[in-house]
Write a structure and sequence with these properties.
The complex is a heterodimer of chains A (about 325) and B (about 325).
Chain A (H helix, E strand, L loop, with lengths): L1 H28 L4 H6 L5 H11 L5 H13 L13 H36 L4 H15 L2 H15 L17 H35 L2 H8 L4 H13 L1 H14 L4 H7 L4 H10 L3 H29 L7
Helix pairs in contact in A: 1-14, 5-6, 5-8, 5-14, 6-8, 7-8, 7-12, 8-10, 8-11, 9-10, 11-14, 12-13, 13-14
Chain B lengths: L4 E14 L2 E14 L3 E5 L6 H9 L7 E9 L2 E2 L5 H7 L4 E4 L3 H4 L6 H12 L4 H14 L5 H4 L9 H14 L4 E5 L7 H18 L2 E6 L2 H5 L4 E6 L2 E7 H7 L3 H8 L40 H5 L5 E2 L6 E2 L14
Parallel strand pairs in B: 3-8, 3-9, 6-7, 7-8
Antiparallel strand pairs in B: 1-2, 1-4, 4-5, 9-10, 10-12, 11-12
Classes of the chains: A mainly alpha (about 325), B alpha/beta (about 325).
Chain lengths: ~325, ~325
C-alpha cells in the first residue's frame, strides 16, 4: 500500500509542477506587457520599478519562473498592486470560508445520501426508489443560483431565520452562532448538489454488491439486514463513491463562487471573481495555484481513503 | 416423525417467475434426514439441487420465488417462515458451505472478522473471546498459522484456504445441519479431496447432519450414507448409497455413474456421456423428463409421469416405468 501511495504522490508532485508553470505563465498569456497586466489600474512609475525588482521582469522567462516559484515556496505570492495587500493574506482570509462550507456540506451530503441509497438499493424499483430517482434527477437539474434565490426567499425572508440571508459575513472564530446561521444556506445548496450525485453513484453500486454471493453468505449467518448493509455491502460499494466525492469536493473549492457571490460571502470564489473584475492578476494567479494544489491534495486524500476501504486496490 | 429425524422435507416445490414464464426448479421433493446422518444430493447442472439446498435453508432471494410444501427443521417450519424466524435458524441450526470461495467471502473484511461475526452477533461473545474462538476454528479447519491468518484479507489466501474459511464460518454457530453446495467445484482437483475429507471429518467430530450437493457421484460414494438422485427438479431415485450404486433401477442413475471417471478404468477408456441436454425447465414434457435422452424410453414414458415406487430394498425408491433389472445395475 505504501508503494502504491508513493507512486501516486510522485505523479501528483509532477502535476503540481505543471500547474505551477501554467499559473506562472497566466500573466504572460494575457495581452500586453506583463507589468501592465499586473499593475492594471495601479500603473505608476514607482509601482512599475518595484514590480520589475520583485519579479525580475527584465530577465529571461525561465529565470523569472524560478524566481517566482522560490518566492511561492516561501509563502510569498507577491503583493497586489491594487489593494496593496500581500496575496497570501487575502487568500488566507478567504480559504477557511470555503473549507467550512465544504466540510458542512459534505457532512450533510454523506449523512443523507448513504441512508437514502441503502433504502433504495434494498428494494430497487420500489415506489420509494423510483420517487427518489426522479426527485434526485430534478434536483440535479436545478442550477445553484435558482436554489439560492428560492432558499433565501423561503428561509431568510418568509421564515425570517436571522443571518441566513447573510448581510455581512462574520468569521467562525468571532461569533460561531451567527457564522453558522449565515453558512447554512450556501452549505445546503452545495450539499443538495452533492447528495444527488452521491446517492446515484452509491445506489447503483449497492445494488450490484447486494447481488454478490458474499452477501448471501452473510445472510446465511443470520445477521440483521441493517448489519448486512452497513457492514458487508457499504464498504465494497463505496470505491466509486469516494472517487466521485474526491472530484466533487475539488470542484467545490472556489466552485462555490456563484453561491458566495449571491450571498456576499467573501470566500475564495468570491475573491476570485472580484479580482478578475479588478484585473488584480496576482491575486488571480495565487488563487489558481492554491485551488489547483488543493484539488490535488483532496484527490490524494480520497485515493488514500479508497485503499483503506478496499485493500485490493493497493495491490501490485 | 421419529426423535432421530432432524430434517423432514415434504413435497417441496420451488418456482421462479422469469420473463419467459414460471419455472419449476424443484418439483415435489420429499425426504428425511436423521441426526448425524449425511445425505448426498446428486444430479446434473440444472437438476435443481442447488435450489433445493437453498430452499431447505429458506435462503432464496426475496422476490420472484415461491415455495410450497414443508421443510421441518428440528420442528421448525422453514417454508413460509418470516425473515426474522429464519434468521434465528441460520448459523445456529443450519449453515451452508457455498460453491465458490472466490465469491462467497467478503473481499474487504478480514477473514477472522467474518468468522467472529457469527460468534459475536449470534452467540453474543465478547470481542476477545470471539477472536480466540475464531482462531480455534481456523485451526480446526486446517489453516496453518491461524493467528496470523485471522487478520488476512480473502484475496491473500488460496482457493482451498478460502473454502476452509467458509467452512469455519459455517461451523462457528455449531449448527446441527450443514448444507454443502458443490463445495469443491471452484477448486483445483488436488484440493478437492482435502476439502471433502475435512467436511467428512468435522461432520463426524461435531455430530452434525450434512447434505452434500454435487454432480459428481465419486464425491458422495464414500462420504454419505444415503443418496437422492435428482433430474429436472424431481427425485428420480433414492436409497442407501450402497443400493444406489450397486442396485440402481433408474436408467438416469446408471448414466450418471457411467459418466463419472474411475481410476480402475484402463487407460484411454472413453468416458460415457449422457446424450442430449438437460431439459428446458420452462417446457417440460408431460411424461418422464428424462425420456427424450433415455435408451429404454417407451411411448408411455413420453405421456405419463412415473412416480417413486419402492424397490426390493427398504428405503430404496425409483421413478421409472422400464427400470433396469434388480441386481444387474452394477455399471459395466
Amino acid at each position: 500500500m505504501a508503494r502504491y501511495l508513493a507512486r501516486r504522490l510522485v505523479t501528483l508532485v509532477g502535476i503540481v509542477i505543471i500547474i505551477s508553470i501554467g499559473a506562472f505563465y497566466l500573466i504572460h498569456l494575457l495581452p500586453g506587457d506583463p507589468a501592465t497586466v499586473i499593475l492594471g489600474t495601479g500603473d505608476s512609475p514607482q509601482n512599475r520599478a518595484r514590480l520589475y525588482a520583485q519579479l525580475g521582469l527584465n530577465r529571461p522567462v525561465i529565470e523569472q519562473y524560478f524566481v517566482w516559484i522560490k518566492n511561492v515556496l516561501h509563502g510569498n505570492l507577491g503583493t497586489s498592486f491594487i489593494s496593496q495587500v500581500p496575496v497570501w493574506t487575502t487568500i488566507r482570509a478567504a480559504l477557511p470560508i470555503d473549507l467550512e462550507m465544504i466540510v458542512i456540506s459534505q457532512i450533510i451530503s454523506f449523512a443523507v445520501a448513504i441512508p437514502l441509497a441503502m433504502s433504495s438499493a434494498k428494494r430497487p424499483d420500489s415506489w420509494f426508489d423510483r420517487f427518489l430517482g426522479a426527485f434526485s434527477f430534478t434536483m440535479l437539474s436545478i442550477p445553484a443560483f435558482i436554489l439560492v434565490v428560492v432558499l433565501v426567499l423561503v428561509v431568510a425572508i418568509k421564515l425570517a431565520v436571522p443571518h441566513t440571508g447573510v448581510s455581512s459575513y462574520v468569521p467562525l472564530t468571532q461569533d460561531w452562532v451567527t457564522n453558522l446561521e449565515s453558512m447554512a444556506l450556501p452549505s445546503l445548496v452545495l450539499a443538495i448538489g452533492s447528495v444527488t450525485v452521491y446517492y446515484r453513484v452509491l445506489r447503483s453500486d449497492l445494488i450490484a454488491t447486494l447481488q454478490q454471493e458474499f452477501i448471501t453468505l452473510a445472510r446465511s449467518k443470520g445477521i440483521s439486514q441493517r448489519r448486512i448493509l452497513w457492514r458487508h455491502a457499504l464498504r465494497p460499494s463505496s470505491v466509486a463513491l469516494l472517487g466521485t466525492a474526491g472530484v466533487n469536493i475539488g470542484g467545490l473549492l472556489a466552485g462555490g463562487f456563484i453561491v458566495q457571490y449571491l450571498l456576499d460571502i467573501p470566500g475564495l470564489g468570491y475573491t476570485l471573481v472580484n479580482s478578475i473584475g479588478l484585473s488584480d492578476y496576482l491575486v488571480v494567479q495565487g488563487i489558481v495555484l492554491v485551488v489547483s494544489v488543493g484539488v490535488i491534495v483532496i484527490n490524494f486524500v480520497f485515493d488514500f481513503l479508497i485503499t483503506l476501504v478496499d485493500p485490493r486496490i493497493a495491490r501490485e | 416423525m421419529s426423535d432421530e429425524t432432524l430434517l423432514r422435507v415434504r413435497e417441496v416445490t420451488t418456482t421462479f417467475d422469469t420473463p419467459q414464464g414460471r419455472l419449476t426448479a424443484v418439483d415435489g421433493v420429499s425426504f428425511d434426514l436423521a441426526a448425524h446422518e449425511s445425505l448426498g444430493v446428486v444430479g446434473e447442472s440444472g437438476s435443481g439441487k442447488t435450489v433445493l439446498s437453498r430452499t431447505i435453508m429458506g435462503l432464496q432471494p426475496r422476490r420472484g420465488v415461491s415455495v410450497t410444501g414443508s421443510v421441518l427443521l428440528n420442528g421448525t417450519e422453514v417454508v413460509g417462515a418470516s425473515e426474522d424466524a429464519k434468521r434465528e435458524l441460520w448459523g445456529r441450526q443450519v449453515a451452508m458451505v457455498f460453491q465458490d470461495p472466490m465469491t462467497s467471502l467478503n473481499p474487504v473484511v478480514k477473514v477472522g472478522r467474518q468468522i467472529d461475526e457469527v460468534l459475536r452477533v449470534r452467540l453474543g461473545m465478547g470481542r476477545p473471546a470471539a477472536r480466540a474462538r475464531a482462531i480455534e476454528l481456523l485451526e480446526m479447519v486446517g489453516i496453518p498459522a491461524a493467528a496470523t491468518r485471522y487478520g488476512a484479507y480473502p484475496h491473500s489466501l488460496s482457493g482451498g484456504m478460502r473454502q476452509r474459511v467458509v467452512i469455519a464460518i459455517a461451523l462457528a454457530g455449531s449448527p446441527q445441519l450443514l448444507l454443502a453446495d458443490e463445495p469443491t467445484t471452484g477448486l483445483d482437483v488436488t484440493i478437492q479431496a482435502q476439502i471433502l475429507n475435512l467436511l467428512d471429518e468435522v461432520q463426524g467430530r461435531l455430530g452434525m447432519s450434512m447434505i452434500l450437493v454435487t454432480h459428481d457421484l465419486g464425491v458422495v460414494a464414500t462420504r454419505t450414507s444415503r443418496l437422492v438422485v435428482m433430474y429436472a427438479g424431481r427425485v428420480v431415485e433414492t436409497g442407501t448409497t450402497r443400493d444406489v450404486f450397486a442396485r440402481h433401477r433408474m436408467p438416469y442413475t446408471r448414466a450418471l455413474l457411467e459418466s463419472s471417471p474411475k481410476v480402475s478404468n484402463p487407460s484411454h477408456t472413453r468416458l460415457a456421456v449422457i446424450p442430449g441436454r438437460p431439459p428446458n425447465l420452462l417446457e417440460l414434457p408431460p411424461g418422464c423428463a428424462f425420456a427424450p435422452r433415455c435408451a429404454y424410453a417407451t411411448d408411455r414414458c413420453a405421456s405419463e409421469r412415473p412416480v417413486l415406487e419402492p424397490a426390493d430394498e427398504p428405503g430404496h425408491l425409483f421413478a421409472c416405468f422400464n427400470p433396469l433389472p434388480p441386481r444387474a445395475g452394477s455399471p459395466s
